[in-house]
Structures are given as C-alpha cells and as structure tokens.
Specification:
Layout (H helix, E strand, L loop, with lengths): L7 H13 L12 H8 L3 H13 L3 E3 L5 E3 L17 E2 L14 H6 L14 H15 L5 E5 L2 H10 L7 E6 L3 H9 L3 E8 L2 E2 L1 H9 L2 E6 L13 H11 L6 E5 L21 E6 L1 H4 L6 E5 L1 H9 L10 H11 L2 H27 L12 E4 L4 H10 L2 E2 L1 E2 L13 E4 L6 H25 L1
Parallel strand pairs: 3-13, 5-6, 5-8, 8-9, 9-10
Antiparallel strand pairs: 1-2, 4-11, 6-7, 10-11, 12-15, 14-15
Helix pairs in contact: 1-3, 2-3, 6-7, 13-15, 14-15
C-alpha cells in the first residue's frame, strides 16, 4: 500500500499503520524525501518533518546514503540493574541501598487522617520545609512549589505545558538517559549542547538557541554521566546568553542536591519569565520514593498545577509526609551526609586506582565515574566482560556523534579497595587488548 497524506502527521501515521500491520518490516527502505514529496504533491519540508516524527518515535532511522529505513525495535536504554547476569555490574547508576535512611520508624508517624478529593495537593509541612530549601537557592524572585512523582515526571509535565510536538529542546551532550528519553518520547526535537568540565558550554547553548530551542534542560551539578558541575563563571556566562531569550523555558535538574559536594550556581537570569528548579529525593531517600519538589515562576507553576489537579493526579500525601519526616529527622539527615562523603570518597579512590594503572580519570560529582579511553568504549566493555565486569559504554548517552563514544560510565561506590585494584588492572588490560584488536584490523 502506498504512503498517503498531505500533512506531516498524516504521512507519519500512514507509515506507522503500515509498520503496525507488518506491511513494512525492519530494514525496509522508505522512499527518498524528493520521491515521496513528488508522489504526494507536497513540499519536501513536509516529508522531512514526517520522517523526523517517525525517527523520534523510534519507528525509522536515517542511514545516510542508505536512506531512511524501518528501524529495529531495540529496547530504550534505561538506568538500573542488568538482570540475569553473573558479571559484576558497574552500569547501574543506582545509589547504595545500605546508605539510604531506613524509613521504618518514620512510616509509623506518617499515617494521620485520610486526604480526600478537592484538598490541597501539597502537604502543608512539606511545603513549609521545601519553601525554605528552595528559597535559599532561587533568592528573592517570586516562585511557587509543585510536587511531582520524581524529576522525570516534572520535566515531562513542564515540557508538555510549554511546547508542541517537534519543538526543539536543548539537552546536555552527553545526556542523562531519563531526560533524553523524555524528550524523544514526547515528540520533541533534541538539540545537543556539549558539556565540558564546567558544565554546559556557552557556545553550544548559543548555537542551540540560534537553532530555535524553546526549552533548555541542564544539570547544575553532578551532571550524569560526566559528573561535571557548573562553575560560578560558567553559570554567569550562560545567564548572559539566556538573558536575551526571556521566554525560553529553563529547567535545572538539581538531582544530587543534598549529596553534592559542589556549590549550586544557577543559570536562570534575573527576571526570566519561564524557569523551574527541580530537586528529587531519589538519590538520597531512594528511587522508590518517586518524589520531587519543583520551584518555578508563578505562571509556569499555574500551568503545571493544572496537570496535577486535586481531582485526578497528585503525589500521595502519605509519600509526602514520609519524605518530610525523613528530611527533618536528625538521624536520616546524618545518614545522607555520610552517604555524600562515601560517594565522593569511593569515586576519588577509584579514580586514583585507575590513574595509577594508566587510565587517567578525574573524579567528578555524583554516583559514577566518567572514564575517558583511547579506543572505542564498546570494544573495551567487551574485553571487560571477559574479565567478569559489566560496564556501560558512553555512546548510550551521546546525542550527536558519528564515531563510537570513547568513555565508560562506571558506578563503583560499592567496590572495596581490593575490588578497585582488580578493576583498574582489568580495565588497563582491556584497553590494551582493544587497542591491539583495532591495530590488527587496520
């Protein structure tokens, strides 16, 4: 059946239906943009937009001179454990469960009376505590609080209430998997902004805005996967760029917050019209808490509140009370502080061991190390598997790169000193073996 439609969405739906019916199968080539535009008597840009929608949905992939083809339905990369593996898993990105405060005692204090339809969606005690927490970060500017089911939930809702399908979103490159997946699955167009040791680059952000980005999502500290944190100077320079785009939505995902050893520097300019600061509790109270607090300008908060109304969707008050109980408990707060020291200490120890073995690494902030390599990361990860390690290659986090990424992201905070020495030795051997294999193929 030929592809039909006049608008980009109609053309994309026609291809989608043929894929769902099995009339187009993985590997099948779609017509060239010129050929399909001529067949349908539409502008070529309409076909380009249709193919872009299909690419973002994961239904097709562009293969350069090989054209556009129906994609294999590969699983989307996610954080978490690799199931059914006998290898030592270094790719989880998870916090250490032994360092998450025990909620048992706090649970008994959070019951209280039932909360019914129509009541305020934010628990009063949590709102009071979080207002003070956020005020210290955002300063005197006016803001309102929103509570969501985690940082990704907040980002999805913020983008949905501001953007339309195919709008451009500036993302860090390499990028946090959840943010990248949220943008792609939402039908938005990711625009890569390079990240260096001081965070998102100024030239990269300017280029993304010049390309029409209507939203910017960035991590002010402990950027995942690189561990980079914004310096004061870099934050000021980024504010300068954003000051000329006051209606671009700026989202800061400060996911590591209470665990971070670095100061928080904001890129949100004074008087900016659309902004949000998100702080999740997942890294220090556990991913299963599914709780994040967002401070945003009043208009953005009002739009966000409409998507979290008291008649259908709100974060459980039991969960909010539990979060507040832990965040104000002296023992739990002390446990979070110990966890912060542990993560920083183990990352530093791992970086030292790897550097001693000839793989130079500079530890950043966060739960993992971003390890640069002289050869393709996938080749090294294959060699590590033969030595009993499961590592995450960096190309899963990359938005724009024709070459294989030359980084590994390693979660090492649960390794002993002996484990770190063995990992360092095995990684050095894996790099050497991958280099030898590459030379033999050349």
């Amino acid at each position: 059946m030929p592809i039909s439609g006049r608008a980009a969405t109609d053309i994309a739906d026609s291809v989608r239906q043929q894929v769902e019916r099995g009339e187009l199968v993985p590997g099948d080539a779609l017509p060239s943009v010129r050929a399909l535009a001529d067949d349908l008597a539409v502008n070529r840009n309409t076909v380009v937009s249709a193919y872009r929608l299909l690419t973002q949905a994961g239904l097709v992939e562009a293969r350069g001179r090989a054209g556009t083809r129906v994609a294999l339905r590969a699983p989307i990369a996610q954080e978490g454990f690799a199931h059914d593996t006998v290898l030592r898993d270094l790719g989880t990105g998870n916090p250490d469960p032994a360092l998450i405060p025990d909620p048992t005692a706090a649970l008994a204090r959070t019951a209280g009376r039932p909360v019914l339809y129509g009541e305020p969606v934010i628990d009063t005690d949590l709102e009071t505590w979080a207002t003070t927490w956020m005020r210290a970060a955002v300063g005197p500017r006016p803001f309102r609080l929103t509570v969501t089911g985690g940082a990704s939930d907040a980002i999805e809702r913020l983008l949905a209430q501001t953007l339309t399908r195919d709008d451009a979103v500036a993302l860090e490159d390499p990028c946090f998997l959840a943010s990248l997946n949220t943008v792609r699955l939402g039908g938005y167009r990711p625009v890569a902004v390079p990240v260096d040791d001081e965070g998102m680059t100024v030239a990269g952000l300017q280029a993304a805005l010049d390309a029409g980005a209507r939203a910017v999502v960035l991590t002010p500290r402990a950027q995942n996967p690189t561990g980079a944190s914004l310096s004061q100077g870099r934050a000021a320079a980024l504010r300068g760029v954003l000051s000329t785009h006051p209606y671009v939505l700026v989202i800061e995902d400060d996911h590591f917050s209470l665990l971070s050893a670095r100061p928080y520097f904001s890129v949100i300019p004074e008087g900016h019209h659309r902004w949000a600061l998100i702080r999740s509790v997942s890294k220090f109270l556990g991913p299963d808490m599914c709780l994040a607090v967002t401070a945003s300008d009043p208009d953005t908060a009002e739009r966000l509140a409409r998507r979290l109304n008291p008649g259908s969707q709100w974060v459980s008050h039991l969960l909010q009370r539990l979060g507040h109980a832990l965040l104000t408990d002296a023992d739990a707060v002390a446990a979070v502080a110990r966890a912060a020291e542990h993560y920083a200490g183990r990352n530093a120890a791992a970086a030292a061991a790897l550097t001693d073995a000839g793989v130079t690494v500079t530890p950043g902030d966060g739960l993992s190390l971003w390890v640069p390599l002289p050869v393709a990361a996938r080749s090294v990860s294959e060699q590590l598997m033969r030595r009993g390690w499961l590592a995450r290659p960096g190309d899963e986090f990359v938005l724009e790169s024709d070459a294989a990424a030359r980084h590994l992201r390693l979660t090492v905070h649960d390794l002993s000193d002996a484990d770190l020495r063995r990992l360092a030795s095995d990684l050095a051997e894996a790099v050497a073996a991958a280099s030898t294999t590459k030379a033999a193929r050349s």
